[in-house]
Structure formats: C-alpha cells, structure tokens
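REVIEWER CHECKLIST
Item 1: Sequence provided? yes
Item 2: Single chain? yes
Item 3: Sequence as submitted:
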Amino acid sequence: MDLLKDTDLLNELGPLLSAEAAAEAPGTGVDAADLEQAVWVRLLERDPAPTEPVRWLRRAVRAEARVARRRARREIPYGHRHHLVDGHRRYSADGGPPASGPPSAEPEDALMNGEEKKVIRSAVARLPGRCPELMGALLSPRDLTYREIAGELGISQGSLGPVRSRCLGCLRRMLAAEVAAPGLRGKER
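Item 4: Structure as written out by the authors:
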C-alpha cells in the first residue's frame, strides 16, 4: 500500500495526528507541529504500511513525545547555567537562573563556576591535533569570524565546520568520561 497515493487514509489521519500531537506537546517542551512532522516522517519511512494505522499513529506520537522529553532533559539552553537546589537543576520561568539573585552572588557559585571552567580548559588542552588551537580561536574574546580563524590557523574556511564538529565530539566524550561514577551502593566487599 502506497501511503502517498492513499489520500483517504492521509485525510483521516491528519486531524487525529493534530489532536494527538497537541495533547502531547505541552509535556514535551516542543511544538505540536514538530511532533506531527516527526510522526509523518516516521510513517513515510516505514516500509510496510501499518495494518492498524490509527493505533500505530497514537503509539508513534507517544514515542516521539518520549524522545523529545529525553532530549529536553539532556539539553541545557546556551548561556544558562544550572543551579542545584536539593540536588536538582532549577531554572526560572524564562529558563535562566532562579530569581533568588545573580548566579555569582554566592561564593559557592563562584567557586563551582571557576572549577567548571578549569576542567573545560584542561580538557580542551588535551584535545588531539589542531583542536586546542581551533577551540581557543572559537572561544576567543576577540569574537573572530570563520574567515579570520581560517586565516590564523592556515586551513580552509570550508573545513572549519567539520573540524569543529569532530573537536566538540571528542571534547564531549572526554568530559563524559571524567564525570564521577556514582558511589557504591549496598555492601562493600
């Protein structure tokens, strides 16, 4: 069955998908249209068409909502540092730090911020190849353009994006490996 040619099925599923996505979107942190699009793509990528399209559609919406919730838990908005309150991340309504005061008002916050920066600088210095130079140029307070960075490093401007991506992936893996493992639970042997 070719889904693109079966307009009756698509017309039947459209309103149901809109309603299901609108119901799931508030709990996921994404727009209902994004959920709809992800489900349509999932449906088109599916090789055999579902035998029970309505049931499949409801399950697909919930699956995409779960993926979006997991992604939202892992992602931290750029420029917003998390604050731990009782061991949990807390943000204000606008996604920034809690309204209790500026993030560096407490000495503990300043110390933690300094330690985080030290760990990141140390990891960047241990990156392989040209990555430390590139990351230093990208994070420079001079706010260099890609053209200026390419000129300083002597590499083509078109290769900056892929090299940056590889460097960030390597940095991400290094920092993930340095995260302290949870303590032992239960009896120690």
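Item 5: Key structural point noted by reviewer: The radius of gyration is 23 Å.
Item 6: Recommendation: ____
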